[in-house]
TrEMBL record:
Residues 1-24 form the signal peptide. The lineage of its organism: Eukaryota, Fungi, Dikarya, Ascomycota, Pezizomycotina. GO terms for molecular function: hydrolase activity, hydrolyzing O-glycosyl compounds. One of its GO terms (biological process) is carbohydrate metabolic process. This is Glycoside hydrolase family 2 protein. Residues 146-218 form the Beta-mannosidase-like galactose-binding domain. Residues 711-770 form the DUF4982 domain. InterPro entries: Beta-gal/glucu_dom_sf, Beta-mannosidase-like_N2, DUF4982, Galactose-bd-like_sf, GalB-like, GH, GH2_Domain-Containing, Glyco_hydro2_dom5. Residues 240-360 form the Glycoside hydrolase family 2 immunoglobulin-like beta-sandwich domain. Residues 368-524 form the Glycoside hydrolase family 2 catalytic domain.
């Protein structure tokens, strides 16, 4: 081979790779993670004398420095009326506070990485009248904190626009750079951007300081504390695609073709107007590997002149042939695309921006329900709060993915983000995993639910918070509807409340004309003004009726008959969905006696075996509810009677921190289908039997180890999609039962307990379907450790969730075991947290010792960043044999 030939080939390869590189790298834009290298200080008293604004919980207001006028301009990009935008006053407030100054020595502060939740490690407040009570999870979320970090800029950054992008900080964030107040964002759940450019010294070290302030009584659930989501530095040419500056929607969608509309906002922060060419290619996107695939379409190029200091939209459309549609699993596939937009100035690429999206059509049919791509999809949804149990509010992709995996196995296909914008990565997961999402922004407006909640800032911030939420999330195909409020007090303020709802509704449609708006209503009735405003009617609890059946007759509070028919006849063109159903309560694996004969009863009904206030437990017969709730069985009955209802979002999918109804001395909720640790309650199988009717599954409750109940009535219930079932106790039939209409479980309510074996055989259409067996256990003798994943990445984020079961000699889970278990770890990793799912367990989450709760414990393990090798996790308990579990670190 001649050397010339080799040279040609080498040159060719270099050219080819340069060409590929040009296509692959986001030329002109850098997005750098700022998650590492922070110093952190928490203060419970306000020594710096700064405050966002006067607040009811702050008494010594006079000597405080109110910063609101300097923070408000951060909202300007999201205020549509130029006259209402805020002018920054002169002055540099806070610059005299040592913590913001470059010379301040923070080496004694705690070193932390983000996402960070300062409160999750506890300890829990266990006293009566604690400063943070059960509602907010009894964890130390309150107070002020500071985060500091250096930003080292090179001279290459000169002339660029440099932005700080914070995905979420709880709450009242205020940001200083080199001693100058840049701006901030009060609402802790929204993502926001601050322009650092004019405060930054390129080619030098710069000092960033962020102050957060969490009032007490600011929430009805655990808000977490800290910079609990990712933080980024975005570096771009002064002329660039604006923050969340693309909007993609699809129309005329069929298997053969779809029209894609694109709007690109080009922003010019430079001193002179610029002529910009905008080009966008559409590629397939493989969400499993994260790879951009082949190009499938190209939008027509457009040229736009962008005056200095302004934004200009560019609109264009393209047709995609044979589109791979996005749809929810399991009946459809969540196919994704990515649009790659480039800005050119004088033929040079100055910015590259990627937008992931999906092509799909949605129809909200008042008679049938939701159609995705023309196919009916029943909404089998759950409500999810933002916390990740023992990991707190600090967002972690793997922990969120695990929540969704367990929900998918349940047959769940939809999530309501109750009641605030989620971490952006959670919507990437719902896109990829094929869940439908009701995305929700507020839990209250002007009328408060707690003393220091969002109502304090609603008048100043609602527009900016709503528009920024919509712009951030509107390209996600999983998002099907926008909820601009949950059970807001304005439901019952007649025309005034409806007028405010109309304002919010109009903003939703200005930012996204393609999806319906809604707000969840628990008290507004069809003839009131409020529901008229909503595109989709989202009912909380009232669809199936509230306190309307005999077991609830003695309770205080409004009694409401089932509302589905009335709403349907008043709004014959609007789809109805239940955005909250059930509010059923239970403690996993705990059964109390006697058991009610009813289909649904309040947990406070002690005569019917609902709850045990002393032990703070609610019976897991899955019949007991909050005072306004309904058992799953009652919800199913009402929904089946009203088949026009599109489906439901159960309250709640997982247990969450805070709101421990009915026992506020506990720390976490009883509402979940899944407990806080991720263990399945019995209810899991009830929903699975309805949501996955083809799954061959039968599930018996309760457990069958009741040494002190011999001879006593101990009802046995079975969840299965079967239509007939026969129960055997020690081989003796307890009767074969048929599921009648409006029966969603098999019940043998008169079984007298004898130790031994319970066995159920179920049938569907006369043929054997599925079986289940439960045996009386003997003493606990061993532990079994099972990791959800035995190989984890050493990226500082990946996790393994290890379940520990306490077993008897035959290997059956000892159902009441409460042995103290101690964890240790060998190798390049750490134990992050432990939990057992008991809402009343007050051991702090990082504790390496935890009592089993009803036979189960969870330990969460992370690998050290950059490590490799093996991690061995050992669990020990007195008198218990155990084999360790080994994890590979990649
Ligand atoms: C609803 C409310 C939820 C939760 C639930 C259970 O009224 O919207 O946020 O509080 O009750 O208590």
């Amino acid at each position: 081979m001649s050397s010339r030939y080799v040279l040609y080939n080498v040159c060719g390869l270099i050219l080819l790779s340069l060409f590929l590189l040009r296509d692959a790298a986001p030329v002109g834009r850098e997005r750098v993670s700022l998650n590492t290298g922070w110093r952190f200080l928490r203060a419970t008293t306000n020594t710096d004398k700064l405050i966002y604004d006067q607040r009811p919980d702050v008494s010594d207001r006079n000597d405080l420095n109110v910063l609101k006028p300097w923070i408000l301009p951060s909202a300007n990009d999201f205020i549509s009326d130029p006259a209402k935008r805020h002018q920054r006053p002169i002055g540099a407030p806070g610059s005299d506070v040592p913590f913001v100054q470059e010379t301040f020595d923070d080496s004694a502060w705690e070193a932390v990485n983000l996402p960070h939740d300062w409160a999750i490690k506890g300890p829990f407040y266990t006293e009566d009248n604690a400063v943070v009570g059960g509602g907010m999870g009894r964890l130390p979320v309150q107070g002020i904190s500071w985060y500091r970090r250096e930003l080292t800029m090179t001279s290459v950054d000169k002339g660029k626009s440099i932005y700080l992008d914070i995905d979420g900080a709880m709450s009242y964030a205020m940001v200083w750079l080199n001693g100058n107040l840049v701006g901030g964002w009060p609402y802790g759940y929204n993502s926001f951007r601050l322009d650092l450019t004019s405060y930054l010294r390129p080619g030098d070290d710069n000092q960033l300081a962020i102050r957060l302030d969490n009032p007490t009584d600011s929430s009805r659930w655990y808000p977490g504390g800290g910079i609990y989501r990712n933080v980024w530095l975005t570096k771009v040419d002064p002329t660039h695609i604006a923050q969340w500056g693309t909007f993609i929607s699809s129309k005329e969608v069929s298997a053969q073709s779809a029209t894609i509309d694109l709007v690109v906002q080009v922003e010019n922060k430079g001193p002179a107007s610029r002529q910009i060419e905008v080009a966008t290619d559409v590629h397939a996107f493989d969400s499993a590997t994260g790879r951009t695939g082949e190009k499938v379409a190209e939008f027509p190029r457009a040229t736009v002149n962008v005056p200095a200091g302004q934004k200009q939209p560019v609109n264009c459309s393209v047709t995609v042939k044979n589109p791979q549609l996005w749809g929810p699993l399991p009946t459809q596939r969540p196919n994704l695309y990515v649009a790659v937009t480039r800005l050119y100035a004088s033929n040079k690429t100055i910015d590259t921006y990627e937008t992931r999206f999906g092509i799909r059509s949605l129809t909200f049919d008042a008679g049938k329900g939701l159609l995705v791509n023309g196919k009916l999809v029943r909404i089998q949804g759950v409500n999810q709060h933002h916390d990740l149990g023992a990991l707190g509010a600090a967002f972690n992709v793997r922990a969120a993915e695990r929540q969704l995996e367990i929900l998918r196995d349940l047959g769940c296909n939809a999530i309501r983000m109750s009641h605030n914008p989620p971490a952006p990565e959670l919507l990437d997961l719902t896109d990829r995993m094929g869940f439908l999402v009701m995305d929700e922004v507020f839990d209250c407006w002007e009328r408060k639910k707690t003393a220091n909640d969002f109502h304090l800032i609603f008048p100043d911030w609602y527009e900016a918070d709503l528009r920024s939420f919509l712009r951030r999330d509107r390209n996600h195909p999983s998002v099907i509807a926008w909820s601009f409020g949950n059970e807001v007090g304005e439901q019952s303020t007649a025309e005034a409340g409806a007028a405010l709802a109309q304002k919010l509704h109009d903003i939703v449609h200005e930012e996204d004309p393609t999806r319906p708006s809604t707000a969840s209503i628990n008290s507004a009735k069809p003839d009131m003004p409020f529901p008229q405003v909503l595109d989709v009617i989202s009912l909380n609890y009232q669809g199936e009726g509230i306190r309307d059946t005999p077991p609830y007759a003695d309770l205080q509070g409004i009694k409401t008959p089932p509302q589905y028919p009335d709403f349907h006849s008043k709004f014959p063109a609007k789809m109805i969905v239940s955005s909250e159903t059930a509010a059923t309560l239970s403690t996993r694996g705990t059964y109390l006696f006697p058991v009610t004969n009813e289909v649904s009863a309040p947990a406070s009904d002690n005569a019917g075996g609902g709850g045990n206030p002393g032990l703070r437990q609610v019976s897991a017969y899955e019949l007991y509810t909050a005072p306004f709730g309904a058992s799953p069985d009652k919800v199913f009955t009402t929904q089946d009677k009203n088949p026009f209802v599109a489906g439901e979002f159960v309250w709640s999918g997982w247990d969450y921190l805070g709101e421990p109804t009915p026992y506020y001395s506990a720390r976490s909720s009883y509402f979940g289908i899944i407990d806080l640790a991720g263990f399945k309650k019995d209810r899991y199988y009830l929903y699975q039997s309805r949501w996955r009717p083809d799954l061959r599954m039968a599930h018996i409750l309760p457990h069958w180890t009741w040494p002190d109940r011999v001879g006593q009535v101990t009802p046995v219930h079975v969840f299965s999609a079967a239509d007939e079932a026969e129960l055997f106790l020690n081989g003796q039939s307890q009767g074969r039962k048929k599921k009648e209409a409006s029966n969603y479980r098999f019940r043998w309510d008169e079984v007298a307990y004898q130790p031994g074996e319970l066995h159920v055989v179920t049938y569907k259409n006369g043929r054997e379907w599925a079986n289940d067996t439960v045996r009386t256990t003997d003493a606990a003798t061993q532990l079994r450790l099972t990791a959800d994943r035995t190989a984890i990445k050493a990226d500082g984020r990946d996790l393994s969730f290890i379940t520990v079961e306490v077993l008897d000699s035959r290997g059956d889970v000892a159902p009441r075991a409460d042995n103290a278990i101690t964890f240790s770890l060998n190798g390049p990793g750490e134990i992050v947290a432990t939990d057992n799912g008991d809402p009343a367990d007050m051991a702090s989450f990082p504790s390496k010792e935890r009592k089993a709760y009803n036979g189960l414990v969870l330990v969460i393990v992370r690998a050290k960043t950059g490590a490799s090798g093996q991690i061995t996790v050992t669990a020990t308990g007195t008198g218990l044999r155990a084999a360790p579990v080994t994890l590979a670190v990649k």
